[in-house]
């Protein structure tokens, strides 16, 4: 299964959400979801961020792709940097959301498979400057 997640960045901080679902309830994650048939990764991620966070996001550079297995499903997770002028609200897939400094990510309970994404965020996000408006 192809899955996308967005590392939403603003003012040097990244947005994370605490899952509210049957699977991995309470675990922190970068928002995203499944790529539907005929959808590009970027289109799927923009759609998922709109559905989950109610934001129009610009999908940027691909950070990495990881392989994961959850409940018998083989997942290929594509992580992208994202930016939005809007702030996440009306969280429908998460019980809470937070803006955190990249260094703080290791203090949150993510899925073990997310470790390479977190490592990439730690390498890349501190080097970013905000897009020109």
TrEMBL record:
Listed cofactors: Mg(2+)
EC identifiers of the protein: 3.6.1.55
Highest taxon, organism lineage: Bacteria
GO molecular function term, any single one: hydrolase activity
Catalytic activity: 8-oxo-dGTP + H2O = 8-oxo-dGMP + diphosphate + H(+)
SUPFAM superfamilies for the chain: Nudix
Top-level class of the enzyme under EC nomenclature: hydrolase
Occurrences of domain Nudix hydrolase (ranges): 1-123
Pfam families linked to this entry: NUDIX (PF00293)
Keyword tags: DNA damage, DNA repair, DNA replication, Hydrolase, Magnesium, Metal-binding, Mutator protein
Similarity field: Belongs to the Nudix hydrolase family.
Protein name (Swiss-Prot/TrEMBL): 8-oxo-dGTP diphosphatase
Upper taxonomic lineage: Bacteria, Bacillati, Bacillota, Erysipelotrichia, Erysipelotrichales
